[in-house]
Amino acid sequence: MPRTLTFDTETWLIAPGRVAPRLVCLSHVFDEAPAQLLGRDDSLRFAREVVPDPDVTFVGQNIAYDFGVLCQELPELFPAVFRAYDEGRVWDTMVFETLYAIARGWMNFDPRTQTKTRFDLASIVKARFGESVEGKEGEDVWRLRYAELEDVPLDKWPEAARSYALNDAVLTRRVALAQSQDPYAQLALVNLAAQCASAWSLHLMSAWGVRTDKAAVDVFEAELRQHVDAAFAKLCAAGILRENGTKDTKVLRALVSQAYNGEPPKTKTGLPKTDTDTLEQSGDELLLALADISADKKNLDTYVPLLRTGTEYPINPRYYLVSTGRTSARGPNVQNQPRKGKARECYVPRPGWIYVQADYSIAELRSLAQVLLDMFGSSAMAEALQAGRELHLEMAAGILGITYEEAVERHKAKDPEVKKARTLAKAANFGFPGGLGARTFIDFARATYGIKITEPEAKQLKATWLGRYPEMKRYFDATSEAINNNGGHFDLVQHRSNRVRGGVGFCDGCNSRFQGLVADGARAALYAVSRECYIDENSPLYGSRPVLFIHDEIILESPLDRARGAAVRLADVMVEEMARHSGVPVINGLTDRSHPCQIV
C-alpha cells in the first residue's frame, strides 16, 4: 500500500568542498504516525530499508540535500533515489513553493508576508501559517551544532536538540499538506516532478564541485589588477576619481550628461544617473572605464578568492530556479563569467580526468521557431532551419540585399562587410525576439556586441528582421493581446511543460516562451545525463560527473580512458532529451543531430 514518508537529516556543518556532510540523525513522519528521531546508525539502517521501497513517496524541504547526505553514506542507494525521481515519488516543499511563487507572480515580493520572497522552511511556514519558527536563528542554535552529538546516545541529548530535529520533519509535512490542499496547487503540481528531478541533478553537480589551477588564477588576478591600475590612473587624471578612490560626483554627472547629449537618464530627483547600466550604455570611453573598474574590483574582492579556494578543495556553485525556468548560479556565478581576463581557463579537471563539453546550437532561436510552429502552424524561421540555413547569415543577406548563397560564399572568403553584417544580424536575432524596441535595442547592441547604431538605423533593422520572419509580428501581437485582455499582465503557460509564470508583461512574455522551452529541455538532459553517470553501468557516461551547467551547455569530468565515448553519449542524450521534453531542436518532427561536442 502506498505510504508517504516525510524526513529530514541533521549533519555536520556544510563547509567548503563539503556539500554532503556526515550524517548525525534523521527525523521522519510516516503518514499519520508520530514523528520519530533516529541516531546515526539507526538512520542508516532505516534508509537502507525504506529508500528502495517502491511504494513510498518521499517528502522533504530541499530533499535533494537529504538524499545527497544518505547517498554519500550509502552509495548503493543511488539507483533507488533516481528511481523515486523517475517515478514522480518525490515532493520537495522548497521546489513546490518556488514554482508556486513563479506561477503567482510572487518571486520578488510575497504579499502574504509583505516581504521579499524566500524559500527556506521558516519563511514558508511564516507565509503559509503566519507563524514564526523558533530556534532557526542565532550563532548557538542546534542546527549548527549537531556534530557535537554524533557519539551521544539519543536519550542523553538536550531536549532542544531533539525537538529542533523532530520539528523540521513535522513542519515539512504540515507545509506539504497545505501545499497539496492549496486552491492554486495545480499551478505548481503540473511541473513539480520534473523540477524536483532537476533539483537533484543540480545538487549532485554542486556536491561534486569543480577545481581550479593556481597558476591560471594567478594570471587572471594579475590581468585584473593591471587593468584596474591602468583605469584608475586614467580616471584620476580625468578628475572622475580622487586618489583615495572616491568619485567626484559633480564631474561624473557632467560627463554623463555630455555623453547623452544633454539628455541623460535621470534619478527621481532629476540628477543624471551614474549607475553601471547608464555608464555602460553611454558609449563614452571614460564612463565605460569607470563601469569596468567597479566590476573588476568586485571580481578581485570576491571572485578571485573563490577561485583560489578551488586550488585546495572543490568549489561548489549552487543553482537556483528563476522565473523563466532557467537557473541562476551563485558561489561563484559560473553561468556569467567575468568579461575581463581568462576566468574560464582557471577551471581544471581533477588529475586523471578530462573535461567533456556539449551545448546546443542556437538553442533559443530553434526554440523560438518551435514556439512559432506551435502557435501559428508555420514559420519562416522554422523553414530556414529545416533547410539548413544559418540564421545569422540569412539575416545578414537581408541587411546587405544579397542572396543567402552569396552571403555564405563571401563569409567563407572572410569578407569584412559580411562579417560586420552578420554581427549586426546576430544582435537582431537575439535582441528583437524578446520584444526590444529601437531605443532599447541600441543599448543592447552596444553593451552586448559593441555595435553603435542610430535610432533610425535600429528601426530599419527591425523592419528588415520582421520582413524576414513575418510571423514574429503575430507573435508580438498575441503577447500584446494577452496583456490587454488581462489588465496589463497575464499568466503565461509554458509550451510543452505547462509550467505557469504569473504576472507577465510584454518583454518577459516574449522571452519566457522560448527561453523556458530551452530551459526545460536542457535541465531534463542534465538529469538524464546524471542518471547515466551515476547508475547506468552500461552507459559510456558511467563514472563521469557533471561539473558545470551553463543554461544550454553541460560540462562533465570524465576519466581519461572513457572520455571519447562519454563525449558522444553526452551529445546524444542532450539531443534526445531536448527533443522528447521540449521539441527543440525538433522542427516538424525532424531532429537536428548536428550537435557540437568536444573534449577539452
Textual characterization of the structure:
It is a single chain. This protein has 600 residues and is α+β, with helices and mostly antiparallel strands. It is 52% helix and 13% strand. It has 21 helices and 17 strands. A five-stranded mixed β-sheet has the order 3-2-1-4-5. Strands 13-14-10-17 form a four-stranded antiparallel β-sheet. Helix 12 crosses helix 20 and helix 20 packs across helix 21. The radius of gyration is 26 Å and the shape is globular.
Helical residue percent band: 40-55%
In terms of DSSP E residues, the strand content is: 5-15%
Radius of gyration: 26 Å
The number of distinct β-strands equals 17
Largest sheet: 5 strands, mixed
Overall average residue pLDDT: 91
Give the overall silhouette: globular
Spans of at least 5 consecutive residues with low confidence:
586-597
Structural class: alpha+beta
Distance between the termini: 49 Å
As laid out across the biggest beta sheet, the strand order is: 3-2-1-4-5
Q: Please report the number of helical segments.
A: 21
Concise structural overview:
It is built from 21 helices and 17 strands. It is of the alpha+beta class and 600 residues long. The longest helix is centred in the C-terminal third of the chain and has 30 residues, at 506-535.
